[in-house]
Amino acid sequence: MRRRRLTHAVLASLLVLGGSSAAGTIPAAAAGSSASTPSAQSAPSTADPKPASDGLLAAMQRDLGLTRRQAEARIAAERAAAVLAPQVRRTAGEAYAGSWFDAERGRLTVALTPDATTGTRRAIGAAGADVRTAEHSARQLDAVKTRIDRLSAPPGVSGWHVDPVANAVVVDVVREDRSDNDVRRFVSRARAAGPVTVRTVAAAPRTFAAGTVGGDPYYTGNVRCSIGFSVHGGFVTAGHCGRPGAGVSGWDGSFIGTFQGSSFPDNDYAWVSVGSGWWTVPVVLGWGTVPDQLVRGSAVAPVGSSVCRSGSTSHWHCGTVLATNETVNYSQGAVHQLTKTSACAEPGDSGGSFITGDQAQGVTSGGWGNCAGGGETWFQPVNEILTRYGLTLHTYTG
């Protein structure tokens, strides 16, 4: 479905665009004038009276089963948790065993090892987080995952990640392959690395690129993918969508720019420089289904937070953050440090935006399932892409 150009042009006219900015989504003829201040990792302002558009709130209501008031309250609580998470991690020090957002309580939960001092526990509680005791520290679990990362995984193992709630490394095995000898051997070697829990999943993950079928938003060769987030000078997207030097055309067939950097597998990120009359704007598109969402920063949402995704095939869908720093075993090779969500996606959504409230989270990598029957989707965190290529996220500060 082609997005409504008039709606997007009206939004663009409200933003102050840098005069020499190139863009990934708005032709110059459709854009007005504006100004924005770049911020790669801006913290969210908990005082912002409306951190999300009506469309994003509607998508959360649809996909998470919330009322509008509950969706608004959840976004506010998640913003507070995102600010608190790095602070309590520093306070916990070596006793830190992970943290996550508890949607039922609307608070951040922090796990601490038994040797955490009473003063540390009190300080974290006084800061506004709930405290739990866990056997293994985050550093210990990260070391276990690193050891598993060195193993060669068969196709029946879909991925693995540190789960702070379980206080273990969770290895996901495709249901129909759980009795496969290679899978059983991998699981046995993973268990030898440290505390491991095995989970059965419905299907193996795949990337969400698609052959050219007509529509939005960008094309490279015969592959259609989705724009992630505007950066100054271009946009970020998924690495499996194109290699360095590959040309990119827009929804209307006009030339946008060129892949300047790309990594896949191992990582799944890329950035495209843009020109030829295209400008960047700090928005996530609603594709004519919901209003566009302004991007104001990239504070990381904790595990358990809500997250919404925009892509050129399935448009807006929401879910929750299930895990971070997960290794995903695609057929093309393992990709590391992905974030897993319960949001659905479909072919053509690759590279598209994941956002919590007005905070950019990452670009769509792949997953399993679809938006008719459900599934899980992974994204590459946006801050890692910005750091890797020295980019600045295009944000709106009005």
Automatic annotation (TrEMBL):
<protein>
    <submittedName>
        <fullName>S1 family peptidase</fullName>
    </submittedName>
</protein>
<dbReference type="InterPro" id="IPR035070">
    <property type="entry name" value="Streptogrisin_prodomain"/>
</dbReference>
<dbReference type="Pfam" id="PF02983">
    <property type="entry name" value="Pro_Al_protease"/>
</dbReference>
<keyword id="KW-0732">Signal</keyword>
<feature type="signal peptide">
    <location>
        <begin position="1"/>
        <end position="22"/>
    </location>
</feature>
<dbReference type="InterPro" id="IPR037295">
    <property type="entry name" value="Alpha-lytic_protease_prodomain"/>
</dbReference>
<keyword id="KW-0378">Hydrolase</keyword>
<dbReference type="InterPro" id="IPR004236">
    <property type="entry name" value="Pept_S1_alpha_lytic"/>
</dbReference>
<keyword id="KW-0720">Serine protease</keyword>
<dbReference type="InterPro" id="IPR043504">
    <property type="entry name" value="Peptidase_S1_PA_chymotrypsin"/>
</dbReference>
<feature type="region of interest" description="Disordered">
    <location>
        <begin position="30"/>
        <end position="53"/>
    </location>
</feature>
<feature type="domain" description="Peptidase S1A alpha-lytic prodomain">
    <location>
        <begin position="136"/>
        <end position="190"/>
    </location>
</feature>
<dbReference type="InterPro" id="IPR009003">
    <property type="entry name" value="Peptidase_S1_PA"/>
</dbReference>
<dbReference type="InterPro" id="IPR001316">
    <property type="entry name" value="Pept_S1A_streptogrisin"/>
</dbReference>
<keyword id="KW-1015">Disulfide bond</keyword>
<feature type="compositionally biased region" description="Low complexity">
    <location>
        <begin position="30"/>
        <end position="47"/>
    </location>
</feature>
<keyword id="KW-0645">Protease</keyword>
<comment type="similarity">
    <text>Belongs to the peptidase S1 family.</text>
</comment>
<keyword id="KW-0865">Zymogen</keyword>
